[in-house]
Design goal:
single chain, about 375 residues, Glucose Oxidase, domain 1, 7-stranded mixed β-barrel, 10 helices
Amino acid sequence: MALTDVREGLLMLEDGSVFRGLCAAPGTAFGEVVFNTSMTGYQEILTDPSYRRQIVVMTQPHIGNYGTQREVEESRRPWAEGFIARRFTPRSSSHRNELDLVEYLHERQVPALSGIDTRAVVRRLRDRGAMRGVVSDRLGEVDKLRAELLASPQMVGRALVDEVTVDERRVLEPASDPQRAPHIALYDFGAKESIARHLVARGARVTVLPARTTAAECLALGADGVMLSNGPGDPEPLGSIIDTVRELVESGIPLFGICLGHQLLGLAMGGRTFKMKFGHHGGNQPVQDLDNGQVVITSQNHGFSVDPESLPASVRVSHRNLNDGTVEGLAVSDRPAFSVQFHPEAAPGPHDALGLFDRFLESLPAR
């Protein structure tokens, strides 16, 4: 039997605004409040490690229509600190459903609110920018919650990769002829499972590496190429990882960065990053490939961006966001290294940019 909303809860933002609703799942959580414009894929969003220390507000008013299925999860657990929607569907209509979303949120202990005026929340975040917030069922402790919220850390300067990366290496083998398969070293900065899935589906053998693996340790594997994954937090405090990426680029090994991996490549090449006002979170971001003029609709989840004015002459901007002009891709002119800010693996879609995995694999040396 599906669980139903049973008591009131609130979302409080650091500017003092309070939005009241109903507790779909109880608890209290602090984090940066961001909004996601995807119409589907809520389970993939919840389990994306890039949402570590963030509270997600969905702009689509009905969330939970098709329930949840373990096979679509992007990591071992939900990482979103809290989850907010105008309405959570109490019972799914999909034959694939394993657990209704509200039950899933209870079971996974993700504090969640429904009945919130999500349009008003999103307008405030667009006008004033992403803010720290708290979602809670502690209605009698508003003053205490406000003090705890204002004492909570900002996202700028916050290194979160170590909270989400794997503890040890793991190897994923393709279904056929693993001995002849190209070997990819995948740095896990908070990697979505779909990145490895797409590589393996294309016949690659993938070694997933902890985030602090040194360049020397990585190169000693004898991999044919390196992939830098997505992940949470501010990239600039990740000094030793930036140094590792620089060493990998200088080694000449083919390298492909996604999202945080893209930002790390920009920093490794001497660039800078900056905090965006409210970031890009959703599956409807138009991006233009500056090499051929093609426009693709992309899935994105990031709050930091590479400053194009900070990049050296050896790095060119390869992709641009058509909504705000921000950098969406980089290419190193004298090394086989490139990156994109968006998610070619999608999950949730669209799948317009899946060809980037083929481009990367085709850049590897012949075996």
